[in-house]
Amino acid sequence: MAGLTTDEQGIGLKIYEGLVTFMEVLMLFTKMFLSWLHSAYRFIVPPEPKDVKGEIVLITGAGHGMGREMALRFSGLGAVVVCVDINPDGNQGTLELVKANKGIAHRYECDVTDRSAIAAMAARVRREVGDVTILVNNAGIMPCKSLQQHSEKEIRTMFDVNVLAHLWLLQTFLPSMMEKNHGHIVAMSSMAGVVGIRNLVPYCASKFAVRGLMEALHEELREDKKDYSGIKFTVICPYMVDTGLCKNPKIKFPTLMKIVSPQDAVDKIVDAVRRNYPEITVPSSLYYINQYLRVLPRSVPLHLKDFLDSGVEADC
């Protein structure tokens, strides 16, 4: 009788465990389906853009191109802009443009590859402006040549600017955001961080790294015991923007894959930040095209890539 009771208990336990697992899986699929419905709804009805008035927005590479345009756009929305660039003349030019448009801006020269220089700059910003609430890691370099033509110094410098600077700036400015559970991290990646492109091997590696570090950082905060839901993340993946960074673009169909102006690109970037989108491409259609192509066998999208025949030619 004792043995029979033990068997019955074992069977009962297995049935119970099976029911618990079934309910957990059912709950998982319910959550996934509801999240999918919510995403579909938000695709049709985008969230209202948040107000950035009074936010302190630090932008690296603010002395030209999209960095300058973002400084003008955020300041026009009432944000206090902190312009950071290694080039004093370009940085001063951005500062003057912001002030000419009745915006509020501050200028700091800093080599973002130098962690001690970042710490010194950050101390001044906190003392003279306040705690940064929106960090835009925009600074980047893009030498265009085959892998074998890159020197060791060029590759190391590219990763210092395009990747390591992100980490040093995050370690410097993220703690105050975590303390207040309020902030936004914006990282400039690239379509070269989504697909591999000839003559951009080290650059692609650096931009893939940016997407990886942003995803991992989001998960690190999301899974923390404390609530950091007030800190948002946005990764920007532009295709080709007319900033002078891409000197020899190759475009077979200009009407399909046209070079975007910095103004148009920044319109989409600032809108994405204000709506808390986790990732966008510029143009936006590339995001959905890439998501679809990724589920196909690897050889299939290569035919489309060969047909479009777009990319960059070597600088030298």
UniProtKB/TrEMBL annotation:
The answer to whether the entry has keyword Oxidoreductase is: yes
Q: Which Pfam families match?
A: adh_short
Q: Where is the signal peptide?
A: none
Matching CDD domains? 17beta-HSDXI-like_SDR_c
Q: Which GO terms describe its molecular function?
A: all-trans-retinol dehydrogenase (NADP+) activity
InterPro entries the record matches: NAD(P)-bd_dom_sf, Sc_DH/Rdtase_CS, SDR_fam
Q: Which domain of life is it from?
A: Eukaryota
Keyword NADP in annotation = yes
Please provide one cellular component term from the Gene Ontology annotations of this protein: membrane
Q: What is its main location?
A: membrane
Compartments, record wording = Membrane
Membrane topology type: Multi-pass membrane protein
List keywords of the entry alphabetically. Answer: Lipid metabolism, Membrane, NADP, Oxidoreductase, Transmembrane, Transmembrane helix
Extract the Gene3D superfamilies matched here: NAD(P)-binding Rossmann-like Domain
Q: What does this protein do?
A: Catalyzes the reduction of all-trans-retinal to all-trans-retinol in the presence of NADPH.
Family, according to the entry, reads as follows:
Belongs to the short-chain dehydrogenases/reductases (SDR) family.
Query: What is the protein name for this chain?
Result: Short-chain dehydrogenase/reductase 3
Query: From which organism does this entry originate?
Result: Plutella xylostella
